[in-house]
Amino acid sequence: MRHLLIILLFLGVVLPGHTQNYGQELTLKLWNNTSAPHSNEITLEEQEVAPHRPANTTEATLFLFKADPRKATGQAILLCPGGGYQRLAMDHEGYEMARWFASQGITAAVLKYRMPNGHPEVPLEDTQEALRVMRAKAAEWGFDPRQVGIAGCSAGGHLAAMCSTMGSIRPAFAILFYPVITGEEGHCHRGSFDNLLGANRTAELTRNYWLEERVDALTPPTLLFHSEDDRSVPVINSRRYHKALRDRNIPTALHLYPTGGHGWGMRDSFAHKAEWQQAVMEWMKLF
Hints:
With 287 residues, this protein is α/β, with parallel strands linked by helices. The chain has 9 helices and 11 strands.
């Protein structure tokens, strides 16, 4: 048994009994700062600053939640939790959302990505590797490799949009919840850009990550959600991305809610939870 465990760990598989169980069927270590193409140069130990809020992440890990076989649609989605590129909201923007997608027949994988620490290529290459692995494992995991999308919340929405506009591997579709998009002062979430690019980022470097300006013909169809009263990430972020998509004739829809603030994810306290879930399922019928 000991030898089997060593082999599985070498292959990147973590057995349920040796990792925390959030309902996932599989936990897969993708790589770390040593084995990945780039390092985020974080030398501190990973820290859980609050329950399900890891910071200083230096290892990319995938948590797989397989679709309910009675409802399986053949689709899959990669989930990128938010946290300002400083920490990760792994519960209501990760595991809980994944369990809901799986209950609807859509295989979901939560990505615990490495914090950028001023190295924007690091979280992006984590999403690229996650998409590559999901497509390669599609037959084994029970979905169509051509129907693997991405979703993200807040800074995770920025990462999902970055993957959609700058990635060498693009998702089939994207769903963005109150995403960080623009770097324009007065409209941006400054903390996310500071953590992504470094506090001493130049205006030129920052402009490269205004994602409303990076939309191109390969950007996938995108569904967006935002609250009008969001004071952390102003609603103009979603409005600009939506307009950029429309200007390029890329299928898109934007759902705005009058209240809710920021960071609601799967929280029952969000009055429009049932509405966004219905909108997501209607959107998924298009693929």
